[in-house]
Amino acid sequence: MSGTKAPAEKAQILVLASGDREKGAAAEPVFAAISRATQWFGEAGNSQKMKLVLNAWLISMMQGIAESAQLAKTLGFTPDQLWSALEGGPLAAPYVKVKLDAIASEQFTPQMQLAHALKDARLALSLAEPHTMPGLENIAELWQQAADAGYAGEDLSAVYQWLSPSSKA
């Protein structure tokens, strides 16, 4: 599955499926009832691999959102002003809006816990070998520090709070 709690409640998640498609056809009505679409990725296990690819993207995106929101704050802008500058342009994405809203309200109710994202980052890094992913490696190191500082059970957007100079005081 690709999607968080809110889209799941509206049957707007994406089912990532793999394995024997003929046998999987029996599950299609269930998939249709709980999702907006199903994508098949071939042999068994490939859907889990794609989920890690998507989560690596999401993790990288969240770090960028958190850092940009911190920079905006430092320069005197709110998360809402940042979204206004993004909205309607090529950088706007619904996920960005959701996370900027969480940052603005300082409500970090877990959609994906930082600890779970960190686990997926490490798994993606191990499966990527022999290729390197220095950006994801750096994020994993930073997020481990955030987890150690008490943010492990928070939504991954809480990394914004951890990046705040006041969190390190």
Automatic annotation (TrEMBL):
It holds the Pfam family NAD_binding_11. Keywords: Oxidoreductase. InterPro entries: 6-PGluconate_DH-like_C_sf (IPR008927), 6PGD_dom2 (IPR013328), HIBADH-like_NADP-bd (IPR029154), HIBADH-related_NP60_sf (IPR051265). One of its GO terms (molecular function) is NAD binding. Signal peptide: none annotated. Coiled coil: none annotated. Residues 45-163 form the 3-hydroxyisobutyrate dehydrogenase-like NAD-binding domain. PANTHER family: CYTOKINE-LIKE NUCLEAR FACTOR N-PAC, OXIDOREDUCTASE GLYR1-RELATED. This is 2-hydroxy-3-oxopropionate reductase. It comes from Klebsiella pneumoniae.
